[in-house]
Structure formats: C-alpha cells, structure tokens
Amino acid sequence: MFTKAHGMPSQGLDNQEPHIIAKANLALTAMKSNHDDIPDAIQFMSMKILAKGDILFDMNSLESVEWIRKEGNRMEFIQGFGAMSEIKDREYTCIVENVPIGFHPSHKSTLKIESTNDLATKSIILAQWIKPVEHQFEGQ
C-alpha cells in the first residue's frame, strides 16, 4: 500500500489511474540501471484508490513485490515516485486464544515471539489485550 505523507503535496497522486501507474513504472525503469538483481519484467499492473486516499498497487509477480519491499529498493523507489510518500506493508488483525496472563504486550521483549515461532522480523507490529487489563477480573 502506498500513501502520501499527511499535510504534504500529493505529487501526482491525485491523478487518474493510468497516470499513477505510468509514474510508478517510470520510477522502476529509472531504477533498472542501478540494480543487477531487479526482476526483468517488474511492473505495476493496476491500482485501487482506497477510502482514505491510500493507493493499493498490484504488481506482475510475487518476485517483483518481494524485490520492491527490500529496504534499499523501497527507499529508492519512493524517491523516484515522490519523496513525500511512503510504502506501508499490509496489516492483518488476528486473535490468539489461551495467552498466559503473564504476557505483557506493552513490553518490547514480548514481540520477540517472532523468532521463537519462525516468523519474519517485524512481522508483528502490535500486541494488545482485547479487554484492557484494568477491566479484567483477577486471574483472567
């Protein structure tokens, strides 16, 4: 997902779909001369403007998506596309049952459950109780 920084100029993100896709593909073309590892057919295929104005892009392959997500590639693409923008990874909410009451979601160390469970680093952004601790019964 792609979003412009709040309060900043849109830098063309208010244009019609073909213009935005062309601008994104132009930024990719400019990157090809700097990278040997860029997928040959990398391309943005389509896009959808979401309710809050964010843009959800579709790329031609999973390989292209994985390549653009690499931090250095991500930053270079943003500079070519529009420096007042950012790429946001998709977030998913999930509920985990039977979590021990000793779990403290506010401690950064608790998010290390990623390594214990063979998840990618920073794949868990936030952990919280459904019911705030101050509203829980003793032992709940």
Can you describe this structure?
This protein has helices spanning about 15-30, 60-70, 70-80, 115; strands at about 1-5, 45-50, 55-60, 85. The protein is of the alpha+beta class. It has two domains: about 1-85, no CATH class; about 90-135, no CATH class. A two-stranded antiparallel sheet has the order 1-4. A two-stranded antiparallel sheet has the order 2-3. A hairpin with a 5-residue loop joins strand 2 and strand 3 (about 55-60). The protein is elongated, with a radius of gyration of 19 Å. It starts with a strand and ends in a 24-residue tail after the last helix.
Strand count = 4
- N-to-C order of helices and strands: EHEEHHEH
What is the molecular shape?
elongated
For the termini, the CA-CA separation is: 37 Å
Number of helices: 4
Q: Report the sheet-strand fraction.
A: 5-15%
Biggest sheet statistics: 2 strands, antiparallel
Helical amount among residues, as a percent range? 25-40%
Overview features:
140 residues; alpha+beta; two-stranded antiparallel ribbon; 4 helices; 28% helix; elongated
